[in-house]
Design brief:
The chain has 268 residues and is mainly α. Helix content is 79%, strand content 2%.
Length: 268
């Protein structure tokens, strides 16, 4: 299940809003609108992106952007409860009985791993297959991060190119005062556009994607460890404690608080 990430979209809107507010406090907004400068910065940097990457990779831009805006909910606490239930049933009825629980699992990675456990794969084979899947996932995520990082380096560079173009236009029209203003506008605003685009949108998205990737990889590693522990017949309580190692101290405190509240509610 994916959840809209308010911080990503809100951060861009908030940052852009403050920039616009700062502009409007000292000058009209149309003074900062220059279409040639936008074309040089956006068009040039995107063109360089096409040179740097393959077409099928560039096509992933929108999909990767959506991954930054919509967060895939992955709850280790919920995962611990799922595996505790699986472990209890496996101890009572055996691993083959877990096949009935397959349809209730909405994570394909978890389903695939559990199927291998039920089919009697060797633990080394299960770990090797699933870790290969995790490495491939990490490579795909790294590509998406690099795409935005590279774009973030190209945007200010093309802003500087626009600055040079504007200066040349201004210097070649010194005898015509009416052309000096537009040339200076291109010279200054292209740098502004490039720096703003890189530091408010592109590089922050790359950073957010890296954080999301680390979280998803950690979640999948928890699944691998839990499946192997389940196959080894570990105690459900021990399995739950094992999964707590993947939680931050704050998340552990929150989980303990929820558990205590539920126990008090049941006792009352």
């Amino acid at each position: 299940m994916k959840k809209f990430d308010v911080l990503t979209a809100g951060g861009v809107v908030f940052g852009l809003g403050l920039v616009l507010w700062g502009i409007l406090m000292g000058s009209p907004l149309n003074a900062f609108i220059n279409y040639p400068g936008m074309l040089i910065t956006l068009g040039g940097s995107f063109g360089a992106l096409l040179v740097n990457f393959q077409m099928d990779q560039v096509k992933q831009v929108m999909k990767v952007t959506m991954q930054a805006i919509f967060e895939k909910k992955q709850d280790i606490g919920n995962l611990a409860e799922v595996f505790a239930g699986l472990a209890q049933r496996a101890r009572r009825e055996g691993l083959l009985a877990l096949e009935d629980d397959m349809e209730e699992l909405d994570d394909p990675f978890l389903r695939n791993g559990l199927q291998m456990v039920i089919d009697g794969f060797e633990p080394e084979s299960i770990r090797d297959i699933m870790e290969t899947d995790i490495r491939a996932l990490g490579m795909r995520h790294t590509l998406g991060q690099n795409l935005f990082r590279v774009w973030g380096t190209y945007a200010p560079a093309f802003g500087m190119i626009g600055t040079l173009i504007g200066l040349v236009q201004m210097l070649t029209a010194l005898d015509d005062p009416e052309k000096i203003g537009p040339g200076m506008a291109v010279a200054l605003l292209t740098t502004f556009y490039g720096v703003l685009l890189a530091n408010l949108v592109l590089l922050p998205i790359a950073g957010k994607l890296e954080i999301r990737s680390e979280a998803e990889i950690s979640y999948r590693e928890a699944i691998v460890d839990s499946l192997l522990a389940l196959q080894a017949g570990i105690n459900p309580r021990i399995l739950q404690e094992k999964l707590k190692a993947y939680l931050s101290p704050q998340e552990r405190e929150a989980a303990e608080g929820e558990k205590k509240s539920s126990e008090e509610a049941m006792a009352g």
